[in-house]
Design brief:
Length: about 80
């Protein structure tokens, strides 16, 4: 049961972070929701959860949007002195 809960949390957080990242880029909620759903249902992501039952690979999908969000802030934010 703990494994299912961890996989559920990784799916939720990866969807939330992808939604936030794509909303920052597109400024459109519908496109952000669509990109979040596509990101969650990506076949490699689902195979890591349901076929291999791999924790590390499924958790990396949470951090990928955060990394791209940081890079976007670094290159496209006007006030990037905080980096």
């Amino acid at each position: 049961h703990v494994m299912s809960f961890v996989h559920f949390l990784t799916l939720c957080f990866s969807g939330i972070f992808m939604f936030q990242y794509s909303r920052k880029i597109t400024k459109n909620n519908y496109i952000s929701l669509l990109s979040s759903v596509i990101y969650i249902t990506f076949p490699y992501h689902l195979s890591e959860i349901f076929v291999r039952d791999a924790y590390a690979e499924s958790i990396t999908f949470v951090f990928i949007p955060l990394i791209f969000n940081g890079l976007y802030e670094l290159f496209y934010n006007k006030n990037n002195k905080k980096f």
